[in-house]
Structures are given as structure tokens and as C-alpha cells.
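Standup notes
- DV: blocked on the single-chain target, sequence here:
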Amino acid sequence: MDFPSYQNLIQRSKEIALYSSTSALLGWDQETCIPKKGLNYRAEQCAFLGGKAHSLFTDPQVGDWISCCENEGSFADPVELANLREWRWSYDRAVKLSPEFIEDAERVRSHAMSAWAESRKTNDFNIFAPHLEKIIKINQMKAESYGYSEHPYDALIEGYERGSKTKNIKQLFDRLKPELREIGQAAARKSENNSSQILKANYPINAQKEFNYEIAESFGFDFEGGRIDEAVHPFCSGIAPGDTRLTTRYDIEDFSSSLYGVLHEVGHGLYEQGLPVEKFATPSGNSISLGIHESQSRLWENHVGRAPSFWNFWYPKATKYFPSLENISREEIIYSTLRSEPSFIRVEADEATYDLHIILRFEIEKELISGDLKVADLPECWNAKFKEFFGLCVENDADGCLQDIHWSMGALGYFPTYTIGNLGAAQLYSKAIEDEPEILTELNEGKYTKLLDWLRINIHSKGSLLLPDDLIKEATGENLSESHHLEHLKRRYL
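- DV (later): unblocked, structure below
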């Protein structure tokens, strides 16, 4: 489209992308290798870049260009229509926040992330608490600025999962909770005779890195356009075309901790690398939601990486990297992978209990944002809910309310997308197998091309052409449903 206002929007988006991608790079650096003394100035750098990007987008001219395009009425191309839809939605939200607010929020976030890391390391909630107070206040102000019809949390979750409402998420979780408890309890009983210590041995970090690299590459992750580094909390950052960065953390006594962290982040990374490069910097070249993003990470981590077929192929290779595994049979590794037991750490939880971790966080976030729960009371509330959900007593905050990076990032509203992602992963995987039955044969052979190709065609290449619900329905032929996920858990764990 040569329409001048549309071309102006394209050009402005490209300018903003330079600021945003640079900010993402600084964020990755902060989580991986920044010197401690550089943290204060890093906060100012992030505030500057965030403020500049926001000012460029909220320029009244941008609103005029969007309106001009909307009034023009001759746009028919799906890409152009998607771009206009997303520009309008983003602009209408963005103009409700001042550049000064954005700068302050970025500054608070940057300081909060470093405080959280120190707080978790020393198991001292008091280090992080004043920063979390600021984070909560900022998110409450965002919610009031954006506006909402029923609950302030609506305004926040909308930023991560378009079309989602607190009420709908609560209804979904209320349906899931009793079934998940039953599945988790039954899976735990079934696993009682499988030792939780079976994998405990010595696994040199370098060997773990090499093993993880080989698997990630076999899945399709392009290391000429990406890398894996170490961080306190695993994450994936799609910085720019040709630059997708993954992180994990290592446990010298258990190689599976870093492995499944990598498989999860590889799922995110494959999505980022599969987005249409030619549309980068425009909305249609971006992922559409965190729920869709998490569907990719959970699919590769769980449906592929925890399946018996995975270890049928990778066990002989694993023994070469880790000689200590020669004393552990392939069957024992599979049993260990599918072992279920209530645990404190979300990212290390088995599939049968994982979603309960998400529901717990959702219930707490709602109360933090509504003001019904004060930050000072968070550890006590967390520990009480954890006892209710899992029957376990949290012994320290590092294994409790301090375990996740998300709140320090200001990402309240993010957590529900993990369970939405689990539902999507099961539904997409089921449809992929239905469409391409030979995928199962390939998985047994350690080949992943057909599965990746199916996801490339049906999810990755679509970018933001469709809203999340529409994307799932187009890919699978049905609305998003919990049925596939629950059936998957029952088949695998019961």
C-alpha cells in the first residue's frame, strides 16, 4: 500500500523497533553479565529508551495517520488490516500513559529486577519488598489509566492475552482446579515407588551445555541467529531478526534442570525465529500473545521433550555426555521424567502439578492489584495458599514468593498465559499429529522437521494476522478448550 499515512506508520514503527530492540538487548545483558556497579546507570539507559519509544508512538501525528488510514476505506490486504488493527489498539492504550510515567516505570523495573535477584539469593524478602510496592503501584496506575469494566486486573491481562478477562480466567481455573488436584494426587500415588533421587550424580556443566546445544539444534533452533547463556531465571529474548537469545541455569547434580529449561526456551526461540522477518518492526511481524508464545514453549518442553520417544532416541547420546548415566537405564530416566510429586519450584514442577502453581499466582496477583493483599502480607499469604494447594509447608521465601522473576519485571497478568499456553500446546500438538501422522515416526527417530514445519505454517508465519482465539481456531478447527490438556495429563500420568 502506497497510501502516505500507512507508509508513515511503517517508517515510525521501524524507528521505534530500533529503540525497543536496543532496550531488549540491554535487558538481556542485565540478566546475564552486567557488572553490579553498572546497574544504576542501566536503569537510566532503559528509562531513556523506553521513554523515547513511547514518545515516538504517542505522537499525535501517529493517531492522525491511523485515523486517516481507517477513514480511507480501501485497505483489503490481511497484513495491512492486521497492522492497522494492532496500531489502533496499541495507540489507544499507549496515549493513556505519559512518557514520564513510562520512564519512571522502566527505572523502577530495572532496579526491582536487580533487587529481586539479590533478595532471592540471600533469601531476604525485605530487600525486594519496597521495590515490589512500587511495581504494584505502577500496575494499579496502569489499570486505572487503561480503564476496565469489572476488575483492574482485566486491564493488565489484556496486555498479555488479548480478549482475556479476569472473570473468564477465574471460571476456567475454577473448572480446572478440582480436576488438576485429582490428577496430581493420583499421579503422585503412582510415582511413590520411583525415587526422586535417581538422577542425582555429577554432570559437568560443560557437558550439559554441549548436550543441550545438540538437542536445541536438532529441534531446529538456528545458532547462527541465536545463543544460549546462563541466568538466574531462564528466559528467551527475541531481540531482532537474526538475534534470538535463550538462557538457562545449571545444577551440577541434575542435568535435567537445565535441559528442560532449554527445551522450554527453545520453544519460544523457534517461534521468534519463525516469525516473518520481512514484517519485523510492524505488528504483523510480531507474536500475537503470550498464551500463543507459551503454547510453543510448553509443546516442545512437554509433548516432545518429556515423551518416552524423546529418551528412546536421546538416551544413548546422553550416556556419552554423562558417563554416570550408564548406571541408570533408559526406563529409569523415563520414569524419572514422568514422575509426579508436589514441589516448591514452578519451573521444575511436573506437568501434573504445574497448572496449580499458575492458579495460585493468579489468585495472589488479583488481590495485589485490587489492594486486598498488601506486599507485607505476601509471604504469609503465599505460604498459606501453597499449603492449601500442595500440602507442603514453604520453609523459605526463595522457594516461595521470591522464586519467579515476573513481578520484578512488572509483569502482573503474565502468569495465566502459562496455563492458556498448556491448553494451546495440547490442542495444537493433537491437531498436528492428526494432520501429519508421520510426525510420531519422526519423533521416535529424533527428527523434528515435520512438527516444526506444521507449526511454522499454522502458527509462526501468521505473526499477528489473527487474534489468539481466531489463530487457535483456524489452526485446529475448534475453539480453545481444556479438554485436550486434561486428556493428555490423564494419558501420560494415570
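- Follow-up: Residues 346 and 354 are 7 Å apart (CA to CA).
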